[in-house]
Amino acid sequence: MKLLYAEDERTLSEAVADILTYHNYIVDAVSGDYDGIILDIMMPKRDGLDVLSALRKSGCKTPVLLLTAKTQVSDRIRGLNSGADDYLPKPFAMAVVTILLMVLIGAISGLSWVTLDRQSTFLLHALTNGEERLPPREFSAPKPLAPPMDMNMIKSARFFTVLTDQDGAILAVNIDQISSVSQEQAEQYAGQITDNTGRIDNFKYETKQLGPDRLIFFLDTSHQLATFVMVLSISSVIAVVCWLVILLLVIFLSGRAVQPILAGIEKQKQFITNAGHELKTPLAIIQSNNDASALIYGETKYSRNIRFQTQRLNLLMANLLTLAKLDEEIKLPVEAVDISELIRELLAGCEDAMAQKQLTLSAKIQPHVSMQTHCDTFSQMVSVLLDNAVKYTPEEGTVHLSVISSGGHIEITEENTCEAPCVSDPERLFERFYRGDSARTQSQLSSGYGIGLSAARSIAETFGGKLTASYTDAGSIRFTARF
């Protein structure tokens, strides 16, 4: 048996863990404070966001990293609003690897530049203190991020000096240690000096007072830039090679890792299709026998209940089979369909149900709007929207339906009054088997299974469209299918 033991007193935690281990239990003991927490969101007993909220309410300030398979922007916002310090989705995308490599390159290049800059500053300071003479000397231990300094490095430095009087007139120029600068250029550089230290082009300079005169040292730092570019280039090449190696490993391993998942999804689709077809015959037998019994022995509450449940199961099977067909990405035959006329026919079939609830229907259907689609499947999408409107619009409510073609797009809008929304995000209505009734009661046929809108969205996407939902300020909900 494996146990998790949590105790804030470390000595007690260790003692209890040893006792349990002695009795052949596998114990994970945790105690004390932690510098960080890695928390999964989708856990079996309690949602990770609830755990995080409880931690923050209790005053816990420990940094928390959320590690989860939820990758939507809304999920990230919920996680960060709950108090997370960062949010890392699973699986880790190559973009994350790319960013990490770029950060690594920047860190290496930046460190290289700082090191080279400190080296040139230290070298220039050593030359200035030597006053053009380079006697042997001992150097102390180098500062952090600075290479060790010796006489060979100082003597190999490329520099020149300019001696000026207190009025700035040039008294002497020494260009023995550099061949790329002429005396005239050295005098021009000296004329640009404004501070005691600084940089001009590829030269760092530092001044030293010699009585009334001023000695200016110019150190050539062009090698610093060349070394920095070389380090940056090498780091970039190494990073690209590492990125390609990781990409090849991801491609190779992900193919093998995803294979059983794809096989499982394919089996699930096949199971839904086969189960749906296998259930059709028993349901038909149950329904026909029930109808025969009602004719012979009369209608009873039991026969009505049986008819009610078989109707629900037939509706569920129809939607499941539609989803399975769409998930299998079977190409449906399409033809030019006058959707204006099609929707009018579907509306006529809903008039009796609307009249029973005293619903007010407002239809604005542009005539002769046609599109390439599969007639039966498209009809199912519209039927779902109309059925939902009839089922969930309160009595004496209003239902508005419009079909408009403009600018190469077709927009079908269904809007109906609704009671107080049971979910703040209407996008959740498209989740498979989502129902606002958390108890999932089946008190009426209109309660449904929470799969119709999911099927409607899949149908819309199959034909290159998009189905969205939103609440209006007028206390209604609007579904918009745009093609």
Summarize the structure.
The chain is α/β, with parallel strands linked by helices and 483 residues long.
| Spatial strand order of the main sheet | 7-6-10-9-8
Rg calculated over all Cα atoms: 39 Å
β-strand amount: 15-25%
Cα end-to-end separation: 57 Å
Oligomer: single chain
Number of domain units = 4
Q: Report the strand count.
A: 17
Largest sheet descriptor: 5 strands, antiparallel
CATH architect. name of the largest domain = 2-Layer Sandwich
Would you tell me the overall average pLDDT?
A: 76
Total number of helices: 11
CATH homologous superfamily name of the largest domain? Histidine kinase-like ATPase, C-terminal domain
Q: What is the CATH top level name of the largest domain?
A: Alpha Beta
Structural class: alpha/beta
Question: Can you offer a commentary on this structure?
Answer:
The strands form 5 sheets. This protein has a 5-stranded antiparallel β-sheet with strand order 7-6-10-9-8, with helices on both faces. The chain has a 5-stranded mixed β-sheet with strand order 12-14-15-17-16. Helix 4 (94-130) runs antiparallel to helix 7. It has helices spanning 10-22, 48-57, 73-81, 94-130, 151-155, 183-191, 222-297, 301-327, 339-356, 375-392, 452-462; strands at 2-6, 26-30, 37-40, 64-68, 86-89, 159-164, 170-174, 197-200, 203-210, 213-220, 335-338, 360-365, 370-373, 398-406, 409-417, 466-471, 476-482. With 483 residues, the protein is α/β, with parallel strands linked by helices. It has 4 domains: 2-71, Rossmann fold (3-Layer(aba) Sandwich); 109-220, YNR034W-A-like (Profilin-like), CATH 3.40.1840.10; 239-324, Helix Hairpins (Orthogonal Bundle), CATH 1.10.287; 332-482, Heat Shock Protein 90, CATH 3.30.565.10. The protein is built from 11 helices and 17 strands.
